[in-house]
Every structure is written in C-alpha cells, then in structure tokens.
Amino acid sequence: MDEHSQSISAPVRAAQNPTPDLPFWRQLRWNLIMYFVALAVLPMVIVVAIMLPLIRQQATVQGTNQLVSVAELKISQITRWLSDSHSILHVFLSESNREEQISSLAQTPSQATDLTGMEPEQKALNEQLGRAIVAQTFFEEFFIYDAKGKIIAASEPGRVGQLVANQPFFNPSMQTEEHYTQPPFYELGRSELTMYATHTMHDAQSGQPVAVMAGRLDMNTLSQTMTQWEGLAQSGETYLISPENNYMITPSRFESDGYTQTRSYHSEGIDQALAGQDGDGVYGDYRNPPVPVIGVYRWLPELNIALVAEIDEAEALIPYYNARNLSLIIAIAAAVVAVLIGLFNATRIARPVTVLTQSARQIAAGNLKLNLPPARQDEIGLLTRAFGLMAGQLDDLLTSLEQRVADRTHALETSAVVSRSLSTILDEKQLVAAVVEQVRSAFNYYYAHIYLFDTTGETLLMAGGTGEAGRTMLMRGHSIPKGKGLVGRAAATNNPVLIPDVSQDSGWLPNLLLPDTKAEVAVPIAVGERVLGVLDVQHNVAGSLGQAEAQLLQSIADQVAIALQNARLYQQTRQQAEQEALINTIGKKIQQAATIETVLQTAVRELGQALGSQRASIQVSRINSTDQRQN
Amino acid sequence: MNSYQYTQLKLSKLMIILLILLSLVLFGCNTSTQASTEVLPASPVKVQLSWVHNIEFAGFYLAEEKGYFGTENLAVALAPQIFDKPVNPIDVVLDGKADFGVTGGGSLLLARAQGKPVVAIAALYQRNPLVLVSLAENNITRPQDLAGKTVMVNQASTERTILPALLGSQQGLDLQQVNIVQRTDFTSGPLLRGEVDAMDAFINNEPVQLERQGYKINLIIPANYGFDMYANVIFTTEETITQRPDLVERFVRASVRGIQSAIEDPKAAVTLTIAHNSDLNFESEMESMNRSLPLFNPAGSKPGLMTPEIWQDGYQILLDQGALKDPIEVKKAYTLSFLNKIYNNQ
User: Fold this and answer.
1) Is the ipTM of this complex over 0.95?
2) Is A304 within 8 Å of chain B by CB?
3) For the segment A241-273, what is each residue's pLDDT rounded down to a tens digit?
4) Is the pTM of this model over 0.80?
5) Cβ of B224 and A61 within 8 Å?
6) How far apart are CA A91 and CA B244, in angstroms?
7) Chain B interface, mutation test: which of A169, A186, A293, most B Cβ atoms within 10 Å?
C-alpha cells in the first residue's frame, strides 16, 4: 500500500517543480535567454570593437589636424610680427640719409659726459628714436650701438654709454647681413623675458659692420598671440618654449596651477621640437603627473625656439568617448531588452513545454483529465492542441474500453446466468419462455422470441415470445416458412442475420404487434449443422444491435440449442422408460398366471390397457403362431 | 595621424621602454659598483660660503637634496658666514679648515697677487650682480647722475670699492664730485632715511626687497657698463687641485648639477633655501630667484661656466683702477679643466 502511494505521489511532487533535476544552464529558459543576449550583444560588440579604434583614430587625426592648423596660424602670425618688426627698423633707417648719419656718428663717438654735452646729431637721433618708439607698438625701446657695443643713441637717453658687448645679441648682430632676432632671454635687471630685433649697418667701402639698431620687442604681443586659445576647447593651448633651460616663453594655460614660465619643462613634444624636429603625436605633456595630450610641435629656426600646440587627449577624444559611452549604453540596453524578450519568449516557449512535461507526468501517473493552457497560434499551440487531443482520445479510449469490458462482462454474466438456468429446465416450452424473458430483461431489449422447426423441418413455429405480442403470436400459432424473412434466413443459412437499422433495409417486414422495432437480429439455434430454431431479438433503438450483440446472442443461442436437445432427449428417454416399465409389469402379471387361459386373459387385458385399445383379443392357432402375433 | 606615424609612435614607445629597461640595467650596474665603492666612506668636504645662506647657494642645496653629492660619494658640509664673526673664505680654505670656498673673482685675483695659491674652479654667478640702487625720486639712472650725490659702498669688498671709480672712468664721471661713504648698515635704512642717495646692492636682493616694500627704485647696473667680474666663484687651493683632482671634479660636477636643478625648478630652490635660512620670505625669495636666472645661467651659457675673457676683463679693471699694483698671471687664477671635462663628457 505504501509503495503504491509513493509511486503515485512522486510525479505529483515533481509536477510542482517544473524543472526539478536540470541545472540552470541546461534549462531551455536560460538557454534561450542566453541566446537572445548573445544575439543582441555579440554583433554590437563586434561592430563596436571594429568601430571604436577607427573612431578614436579619426578623433585623434581630427584633433591633430586642428592643432596643425592652429600651429601654422600661430607661426604665420609670429613670422609676420617679426617681419613687421624688422620692417619698422628698416623704415626708420631708410628715412632720408639716416644710415649715413648714424655711421659717421658711430665712427666718431661723442666724448660727452652728459646729455647736454652730446653732439647735436646725437641728441637729434635720440629724439628721433624717442618719437619713433611712440609711433609704433612693436617695440618698447630703440637704441643704436657701435661696433664695440657701446650705445650711441637711444630712445631712453639714459642708455647712452652702456655696453651691450656681453649681451647675447651683440655677436650675432655683428655677424649677420642685416637682420637678427634675439630669441627671448632673461636679461640682467629684468625679471621678464626680453627679445631684441636688430638691423646691422655696414660701411659702404669696407663692408664691416659699423652700427646696429636694436629694438626691444614688446613680448606681450607674442604672449597675446600664443595665448589666444579660442577654438581650442577647454584644455587646448599653444606655447613657445626656449632651448634655454626649457623655459616657457609664453604662459601656460595652466599657469594658475603653478606651471610658471620660469621652470624647466619636458615632454615628448617639447624635447623633440627643441631637438629641431617637427611632428605630432600622442604623449604625456609637461604637467605633473603628465596628462596625455595630442600635440603638434614645430621648431622655429629663425627664433631658435619651439612652438607646441597641445590639447588634452581626453577632451579631443570626447566624440570618441561619447561614441564609446553610447555604444556601451546601447549594448547594455540591447542586452536588457534581449533579456526581457528572451525572458518573455523563453517563458512563452518553456512554460507550455513545462506544462506538457507535467501533463505527460500526470498521464504517466494515470491522470488523463488534463487542464492544458489555452492554445496559441503557433507550433507550440499546435503541439499543445495535439497533446490535448491525444490525452482526450486516450481518455475516451480508456473510458470506452472500460464500458465495453463492463458491457461484455455483463453480457457474459447474463449469458452464464441464462445458460445456468436453462440447464435446469427440461421442458421445452418452459425453456423457450425462460430464454426469451431472460434475454430481453438482461439486456433490456424491446422484444425477444424463439421459433422452432416443426416435424417437417420446413416451417418454423413460434415457440415463445416476450410480453403481450409474444403471447398473441403464440396463441395464433404464428409460423414462418424456412428461408423467409430474417428468422427464415437465419434458419436457412445457420448464420446470424443482423439489421442494425430497419429503416435502412427495404426487405424488412414490420410486425404490427411490435411497432417500435428499430433494429433486429436473428441468430440460429443449432447444434452443429442441425438447425433447431431461431432466436430473434428486436430493439427500439436504431444501431443498438451490432456484431457484438449478434455474437453474444449467438453464444446464448448455442446454449439454448444444447438445452433444447437435452430437453428433447430427456423426453424421449422418459417415454422409452415408461414403455419398458409397462412391459415389465405386464410380464410380471403374466408370470403370476397359473393357467394359459389366465395368461392369455391377463395379456389381453394389460396390453389393451397399455395401448389404450377398446378391444383386445388373442387368437391361438396351431397352424401359424405368427398370425396371432400380428393381431 | 596616419598608420606610419602610429607605427612611429609605437616604435618610440618601444624605444622608451627599452631605454627604461636599459637604464634600469645600467642603474643596477651603477648601484652595484657604488656598493663596492661604498666600502670606502664618503669623502668629507667642507665648503666655506661667502655669505649667509641665501638663494645664491641654491645649487649646493639642491646638489645635497637631490643626492648629487651622494652620487659623487661626497659628504658636504656648508659653512655660511655669521654676521658677527665674518671670515675670509680664502684664508679659511688656505688654513685647511675648508676644502672649498666661495669668493669674488676680484678678491681671488688680489689674493693671488699676494701669493695665495687659490684657484677658481667654477662660477656660481656668471654675470656680476652688483648694482647701485637708488630711489626713483633721486633721478639716478646713469653713472653721470651720481655727480654731487652720496653713494654708500661696502669698502671691505674690493669689487665694490672700485665700482664708482670704474663707472666714472667709463662714463667720464669726475669721482671728486661723488661723495663715497663706507657702508655701516647692511639694511636699506640709510637709503630710505635719505642719508645716502645710492648704495651698493646685489641685483637679486635689496632691489627686490625695496620693490616689495612699494618703493620705486632706479638701478645702475655696472655689468651694462662693462663691469665684467665674477662675483662669486667656487675655489680651492692649488694643492687640492694637484693632489685630489678627482675630489675637485666630483664636487664641481655635483655643484653644477645642483645649479642646473635650481634653474629647472626655481620653486624647489627657494623652498630649500628657506629651509636653510628661516629668516627668508618665500615670495621675496621667488622674486630673487627669478632675478638670479641671468646670473646663474645667462643666455647661451651653462651652469658654472667661466670664460677667459671675463677673467681677463676683471683683471684689467683691477689693474686700471689701481687695485692691482703689479701684473699677475690671470690664467693661473682659474681653471676650466674640470668644467670642460664635465661638459664634454655630458
């Protein structure tokens, strides 16, 4: 009993957990979700993996290109500023015969100890220089020095008499053809960078330098040029850097962060440019710690300084980072959507499968009354429907099978009861009456009756029937010729004759006494080849009688045939026994007679009584005793 | 950026990595050889400074701080001047109380003239920082403007003593018209009190203080009038150079590296200077440092360098001004051999 309940409850327990034994990676649901995610994310990842480096490269190229154009622009501005500066010196000197005046002044220097003692030419030149300095914005002061480096005239007359021989621009200005630009340097007595432009005048005959006009350039112009960072975003900058100690010549954009000009700066761009190389690249800049920048660097040989244009890579690559972040967001969103779709679809697919699995388990457990989910319009729906149909049909089959077994059992039981009861009835009339009644009532038929052949074997006489109709027909002595009608045919062919629906059979003859007959079957009552009669059953439901009923009735009819035969044999045997007993009695009486006379009289009397004759006699003849016997 | 440049970038990165690895290997070798020399104790070196701790010695501070002395296996002790007990660095070094000293080029030449065997081995300042500072209201912009004025000069220093005469001879100024007084007060007080019209100063010291105090000042910069004389050189004795040239070279190398470091990172130089002399003010010393840049390393030069021309000019000035009575052999007063070795090797 325990075993039985376990085997029943196991599938029920299992059915509560849809996937009791599978690890999640084997579960259809999770597999589907993984496939969806993989499908959504993989192409994205591949595309992004290919695109991002390209976008990054593109952004770097764009950043570099922008910096190159900025650098070129700055260089052209500086170049123009320098050439304009030199033009100013040139213009000043080319006025009237100023160069000649200066040359003669340089070759005959004034010995004056103060300004008042200066030569009129010298004073005039100072004034001219003073006026000239006011008239332009490129220079902060002008002065003219002789071949020994002594200042002979200046826009600031206090400079007259000073020596510039140990200034860095002195020797180059003595050696150049005409122009020289002194790169920015820290001059003694000035806390700021200083830059000079010089114009050398040569002696017409000897070609030797006789005097130099020098102008101290306004470095603010340079700083302003370099610190115009419009269009360079938040971190873009351009600056000039000197090979002298790697100091910055123009302020850093990050000066407020402590990156002052007077400090050594190093970076790939700075060091390359100061080594005289032009180029660009991505490298860590001069800040501490180095910030990765896109940089463009140029060596400016005429100024002996380097120009660097840089922008933080992080800022230059903002489009790239945006693209990357967007890709990431899309990838995540795609993954989330894929998970949701996957979850939805996996559930849609996996749940019916789970339900079907449960159902299969229930079927296995013997429960065919399934409660399947409503079918969808897809293959899963078809499967569910087919499964439901299968379960239904199984159920029907099982149910009808049980019904049929029950019916058949009932029929067999009836048949057995009928047979048992028949075996006890030795009177033919009683037998027939019992058979028809039991058959009709056992199967709840409308009507049943039996015909038996008469002595001729050509006519079937009604032997008994159920109900009023049966009695009426029996009283009438209803008979059917052999071969005629259902009953006749059954008798003639020794085979059952079945008409499941009488309305469909044109040859069927209705019986007025049985108006409700809708189906009829006649089975022969036969022992082997010898047909004794016919059992005919009628029912008031069309189609209610079939082969199964015919076979069942046939088996009953076979029992009836044996019973009939038994009854007839019994009758015959009894008659014979009675005759023999009579003869025996007569014989005993005769033997008791003492005389022949008495013998004869007793014989005649007893025989007459036994034969029921009115007159009996014995003739004795001596001639022929045979004749006597014939009487 | 095209792919070629990319490759270049990668190659250069690779090169950098290789260089780092190489340098690590070399550094490893270096430390191992050092380890073997470290068996010898570091050479003790004493340096007699010419002034109290201040920005002009920043090169020494950085050489110490950055370990350049240590790298050269030197244990350097710096001896600053004490206001109450000033000493002559030349005498201290000659007495063997210090291995190296700092003094002015003029003083060194005069010492040589007295037969003291001292030799300059490197310059701290390559341009002369001496100036005559005056308040702007005195209208002294040129040497000629000194006529009829009172000028305070530290006559304990030969360079400073000859300054007015030099300017006078250069610019045709009659020294008789200048009232030269001995410096008694080492603050700017006499100038501010109006006791003098101009006074001698270092370009990176008093003028900075005065400007920071809000005074408008004028400077006469003798260097702009041909006054080329080394104001502070590192020197040692002829004996040391002959007997311990290795020590001298190591000391000079570490010192010029220190100066280079000071130039490269003025802020660190100032921070270290203040660490040596807490009387100093950071902002003021930063300004001093900025003004010192043309002294430490003029355009086109390198830290520590000296030139025969400037030595010759300085000598000539001393002769011209009568500070030197008899000619001496200038070339023996200095040696460029250590500097040449250091820079040629670099």
Assistant:
1) no
2) no
3) 998 889 999 999 998 998 988 889 999 999 999
4) no
5) no
6) 61
7) A186
